[in-house]
Design a protein that fits this description.
This protein is α+β, with helices and mostly antiparallel strands. The chain folds into 2 domains: 33-108 and 171-323 and 365-480, Outer membrane efflux proteins (OEP), CATH 1.20.1600; 109-126 and 135-153 and 325-358, Outer membrane efflux proteins (OEP) (Single Sheet). The protein contains 8 helices and 5 strands. Strands 1, 2, 3, 4 and 5 form a 5-stranded antiparallel beta sheet that branches. The longest helix has 67 residues, at 158-224. The chain is elongated, with a radius of gyration of 39 Å.
Length: 482
């Protein structure tokens, strides 16, 4: 063997070692363990035009809230998008996930580390001697400036699969941020529409309280005149107190909704100010035959799918643990016992060689890791399919709610118009002396209650429209319809 080394030379053996390593690289080039990602099948309702495509949550959904035609609402949505704290936290999570992906990506490149050290030490005179006689103790110094290089050859795709998994999680974090943004926009629009409706209810109920107080005064006057009994007066007091209680309940709801809007805009309620327009917003028309690919813009569906792709890549990482890993290592630098000659040529040192790690026995660790990765993938598949089903359910719920609210609003409008006509006729008959004023009061109360019921139905219709826009990932365009 020694003769072979002397005959071939250390340079030759180094070349053989390098060639062997390169051969392993070439044999393993392009070999990535684990399955490549494919979108799992999903059962789709027949009335939806579903097509297979990648998630489109990165596409801008546009300023969908402008369909309501209220500049004050537009300003509030922009304000919330700039100052909401949950959205800022979601953005920070995105940056964390992106940084983690960049850490994983760094494994594609060699790691080079430099350092400098100085040591002064003394040897022991009683230490074991390799030469058969004691070596006297001595003191020496050592100056060293090494440069170390390490690079893992990605034979089985462990590095690429790891980066693929980290990149998928980073993309899912971005999708989660978009989900927070979409939910924030929908919450601001819903809260604003609720505030408008509550303000109108406050006005109507305030008028109702005034009408019932006026009727109670009439009851009291007639009681003094002996035309009524105490029972009618007490009934009038009950009606006034009930109307005042309803008014205070609506004012409480209005205050809570205002506080909610303040938090959505990242402000404390005590220092938050904004004006609610008294003009009723316009309800956008619902496009007919909405295609299911609109759901691809839903960030929660995209988030679930990107987590699924990341879990698929983790299976490849787990499979790579069963195979040898090859790492090229090299070091070089300067070492000397004197600082004065540290930078001379004779002080240079170097070392070069591959390192191969063989997973011979790990107590079932690798097998358990693979089983965990596969189970995590199955969980992600179930979560993805569940999220798609939830998306369909939310759209169907919103569409059915809009259908019924549209009919309810129409019926409430007819009732309010009829009650308004009855109130006018009662007042006209009162002026003609055909009825007493109590009939006018009753007719006016019925009119106000019909208007309140109409306002509440209209508010629910508006909120259902917002929920549909959110369920579709942010509204629709005319080109989306059939």
């Amino acid at each position: 063997m020694r003769g072979a080394i002397r005959k071939f030379g250390w340079q030759g053996w180094l070349a053989v070692a390098v060639a062997a390593v390169l051969g392993m690289v070439l044999l393993g080039a392009g070999c990535r363990l684990g399955p490549d990602y494919e979108r799992p099948s999903v059962e789709v309702p027949g009335q939806w035009r579903w097509k297979e495509a990648v998630p489109r949550d990165h596409e801008p959904t546009g300023r969908w809230w402008t369909l309501f035609g209220d500049p004050a609402l537009d300003a509030l949505v922009e304000r919330a998008g700039a100052d909401n704290l949950e959205l800022k936290a979601a953005l920070a999570r995105v940056e964390q996930a992106r940084a983690t992906a960049r850490v994983s990506k760094s494994d594609f490149y060699p790691a080079v580390q430099g350092s400098a050290s100085y040591a002064r030490y003394r040897t022991s005179a009683n230490a074991p001697s390799p030469v058969g006689f004691p070596i006297p103790s001595f003191t020496m110094e050592q100056w060293e400036t090494p440069l170390d290089l390490s690079y893992e050859i990605d034979l089985w795709g462990r590095v690429s699969r790891s980066f693929e998994a980290a990149r998928g999680l980073a993309m899912s974090a971005e999708a989660a941020r978009r989900a927070v943004l979409l939910a924030l926009q929908a919450d601001v629009v819903s809260s604003y529409l609720a505030l408008q409706a509550l303000d109108r209810e406050v006005q109507l109920l305030g008028h109702t309280v005034a009408i019932r107080n006026e009727a109670l005064d009439i009851f009291r006057q007639r009681l003094k005149a002996g035309m009524l009994t105490e029972f009618e007066v007490q009934r009038g007091q009950v009606e006034v107190a009930s109307a005042e209680a309803d008014l205070e309940a609506v004012r409480r709801m209005r205050a809570a909704e205002f506080n909610r809007m303040a938090v959505l805009c990242g402000r404390a309620p005590s220092v938050f100010e904004f004006q609610v327009s008294t003009q009723a917003v316009a309800l956008p028309e619902i496009a007919a035959g909405l295609p299911a690919d609109l759901l691809e813009r839903r960030p929660d569906v995209a988030q679930a799918e990107r987590v699924l792709a990341s879990r698929m890549a983790e299976i490849g990482v787990a499979k790579a643990a069963f195979f040898p890993s090859v790492r090229l290592t090299a070091s070089g630098g300067l070492m000397s016992g004197e600082l004065s000659n540290l930078f001379e040529w004779d002080s240079h040192t170097w070392a070069l060689g591959p390192r191969i790690d063989l997973p011979i026995f790990a107590g079932g660790r690798n097998r358990a890791g693979l089983e965990r990765a596969r189970a995590a993938y199955e969980e992600a598949v179930a979560n993805y399919r569940q999220q798609v089903l939830v998306a369909f359910r939310e759209v169907e719920d919103s569409l059915s709610a809009l259908h019924f609210f549209k009919a309810e609003v129409a019926a409430r409008r007819v009732a309010a118009e009829a009650a308004t006509g009855a109130a006018r006729q009662a007042f006209a008959r009162y002026q003609a002396g055909a009825v007493n004023f109590l009939d006018v009061v009753d007719a006016e109360q019925a009119r106000l209650l019909s208007l309140v019921a109409q306002e509440r139905a209209l508010r629910e219709q508006q909120l259902a429209t917002v929920r549909l826009m959110k369920a579709l990932g942010g509204g629709w365009n005319e080109s989306d319809a059939l």
